[in-house]
């Protein structure tokens, strides 16, 4: 069984029987138990909710556009009709960090801009993700000097690095698809659910 099938909480064990099961006295108890398991769905409420939450999070990403240099032009191209990132549920670029869950850092980050970037990251609600787009955001690129931050991962945790100078829109879409895979493979924190207060009848 592959890892993807093993992590699916809605996995079906075997194929559903074509005809109703008929108990035969000659069969062993193990074979009967195996036949009964075919076609049954095994999961827990926690796994089911986690799977549903991951599906919702992965297919409705709201990016915060943080375009700083020439990579921002390529980032803007993904919302156009040619590349159409809305196929992945990520067409709603937000101007407010409080409404976004993905920060796309596109371009070089100067030392003076680093505290602003960190403040915007802190204002984003959890769960949140970061894509470092381009060589400048990932490692400083050709700007190896005192004024440019040598990698945005020094101030915020980065989930996906998209290489290139600048990367094409297809590369950014590929990075978003990799982020979706990462979200689907994660285990969301659920609960503890608050208990209902018992109603006391006087």
UniProtKB/TrEMBL annotation:
Subcellular location field: Cell membrane
- Reported function: NDH-1 shuttles electrons from NADH, via FMN and iron-sulfur (Fe-S) centers, to quinones in the respiratory chain. The immediate electron acceptor for the enzyme in this species is believed to be ubiquinone. Couples the redox reaction to proton translocation (for every two electrons transferred, four hydrogen ions are translocated across the cytoplasmic membrane), and thus conserves the redox energy in a proton gradient.
Positions of the NADH:ubiquinone oxidoreductase-like 20kDa subunit domain: 70-179
So which domain of life are we looking at?
Bacteria
Identify the residues that bind [4Fe-4S] cluster. 70-71, 136, 165
Might you name a Gene Ontology BP term for this protein? Answer: electron transport coupled proton transport
Cite the PANTHER family for this sequence.
NADH DEHYDROGENASE (PTHR11995), NADH DEHYDROGENASE [UBIQUINONE] IRON-SULFUR PROTEIN 7, MITOCHONDRIAL (PTHR11995:SF14)
Query: How is the protein disposed in the membrane?
Result: Peripheral membrane protein
Q: What is this protein called?
A: NADH-quinone oxidoreductase subunit B
The kind of enzyme this is, by top-level EC class, is: translocase
Cofactor(s) needed by this chain: [4Fe-4S] cluster
Which segments cross the bilayer?
60-79
Example GO molecular function term? Answer: 4 iron, 4 sulfur cluster binding
PROSITE patterns in alphabetical order: COMPLEX1_20K
Q: Tell me which InterPro entries the record gives.
A: NADH_UbQ_OxRdtase-like_20kDa (IPR006137), NADH_UQ_OxRdtase_20Kd_su (IPR006138)
């Amino acid at each position: 069984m592959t890892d993807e099938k093993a992590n699916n909480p809605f996995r079906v064990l075997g194929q559903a029987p074509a005809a109703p099961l008929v108990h035969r006295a000659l069969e062993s108890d193990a074979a009967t138990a195996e036949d009964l398991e075919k076609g049954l769905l095994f999961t827990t409420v926690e796994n089911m909710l986690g799977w549903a939450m991951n599906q919702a999070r992965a297919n409705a990403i709201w990016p915060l556009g943080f375009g700083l240099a020439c990579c921002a032009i390529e980032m803007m191209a993904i919302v156009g009709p040619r590349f159409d990132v809305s196929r992945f549920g990520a067409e709603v670029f937000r101007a407010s960090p409080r409404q976004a869950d993905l920060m796309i850092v596109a371009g070089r980050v100067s030392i003076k801009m680093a505290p602003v970037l960190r403040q915007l990251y802190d204002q984003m609600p959890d769960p949140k993700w970061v894509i470092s787009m381009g060589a400048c955001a990932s490692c400083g690129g050709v700007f190896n000097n005192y004024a440019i931050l040598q990698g945005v991962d020094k101030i915020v945790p980065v989930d996906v690095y998209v290489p290139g100078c600048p990367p094409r829109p297809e590369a950014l879409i590929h990075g978003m698809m990799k982020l979706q895979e990462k979200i689907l493979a994660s285990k969301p924190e659920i609960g503890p659910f608050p208990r209902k207060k018992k109603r006391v009848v006087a």
